[in-house]
Specification:
single chain, alpha+beta
Length: 214
């Protein structure tokens, strides 16, 4: 049987450029933040993170963690391929990943993570995933992942965003749409009426990356 999800038993990450570069992937992701000093970026939205907040990431959404200090942060990521829902006859649980994040948001606050049962389900997922090196899907993990997906789909209260990107929101949206084109600081300055100095400084403060790196 092929592998329809991936696990990462190592919950601790040390802040480094390699660990928080913005990226996309084909899999859906459910990301439980455990501890640390960081925010999370999804497309043009930035979310502050408190212990046990959860981030739901749709396919091909540009995303990444943004550490605010050198303090190691802890998280549990779960990556699920779209093929999972067909393989295990649970297509209805894919709906939480198909909704537009622009209207639903990406963050499930910690209080809801606890009250919904998601925290307990993720702790079971973590406990059992520590015991497996996956080559194929494992029945006990598959059952827990289906439970997690069921619970995520019951959640109706997402945070659309809780850190304002101010005028940078339009800049980030523009970059996400035109990333294959030649873009210069002069062009951005003229388009958005923001000085190059402000753009560079505010962009790094918001995303943790230089404009050129993004």
């Amino acid at each position: 049987m092929m592998k329809h999800y991936s696990i990462n038993a190592n919950t601790i990450q040390k802040p480094s450029t390699a660990n928080f570069q913005l990226h996309t992937h084909e899999a859906y992701e459910v990301y439980l933040f455990l501890d640390g000093d960081a925010s999370y970026i999804v497309e043009d939205k930035t979310y502050s993170l408190e212990p046990f907040d959860m981030i739901v990431i749709r396919k091909d959404e540009l995303h990444g963690v943004n550490p605010a200090s050198d303090v190691p942060y802890k998280r549990i990521p779960l990556h699920i391929l779209p093929s999972f829902f067909t393989a295990y006859n649970c297509k209805e649980y894919e709906s939480c990943f198909l909704n537009s994040a622009s209207t639903t948001g990406n963050k499930i606050p910690a209080a809801i993570v606890h009250s919904s049962g998601l925290y307990d389900a993720f702790m079971k997922y973590k406990k059992y995933s520590d015991s497996f090196t996956l080559q194929t899907d494992t029945p006990v993990l598959t059952a827990i992942i289906i439970e997690i997906l069921y619970l995520v789909n019951q959640v109706t209260e997402y945070s659309v965003t809780d850190v304002s990107n101010g005028p940078l929101k339009e800049v980030i949206m523009y970059l996400n749409t035109h990333y294959t084109e030649d873009i210069t600081l002069d062009m951005l300055e003229e388009t958005f009426f923001l000085s190059k100095y402000y753009l560079c400084k505010a962009f790094r403060k918001t995303t943790g990356l230089a404009l050129q790196e993004y």
